[in-house]
Amino acid sequence: MRIALHSEIRDGAVDDYRTNHARIPEALAATFARIGIHDWTIWRSGHRLFHLVDCDDWEAAVAALKDDPADHAWQADIGRFVEVFRDADGDEGTAPLEQIWDLRAQASS
Fold first, then answer.
1. Between the CA of residue 28 and those of 23, 24, 49, 92, 99, what are the distances in Å?
2. I need a surface site. Which of 1, 14, 29, 90 has the fewest CB within 10 A?
3. Nearest to 37 by CA among 76, 81, 73, 5
């Protein structure tokens, strides 16, 4: 499955956020592989960050990350640059964004 997330970066934190994402910790990459996260890409527009995640099951991955030490360490570090995550309605939360349209899906139907 492919899901999208939206977060916002703290004022003045773009360069540090970018630097810290040049290469994520190997332990976190191994955790992602183990729990079925195959790819995660982040784009920025101003202070807004858009994440595209390719995974087996997003809800299962989120549940697995709750007790994962590599993710806890990463969140403690990277969290200083992230202001908030937003859901599809713009409220605070990490629920995936609503998909409106998909060219591949249209072409295959």
1. 10, 7, 20, 24, 27
2. 90
3. 5
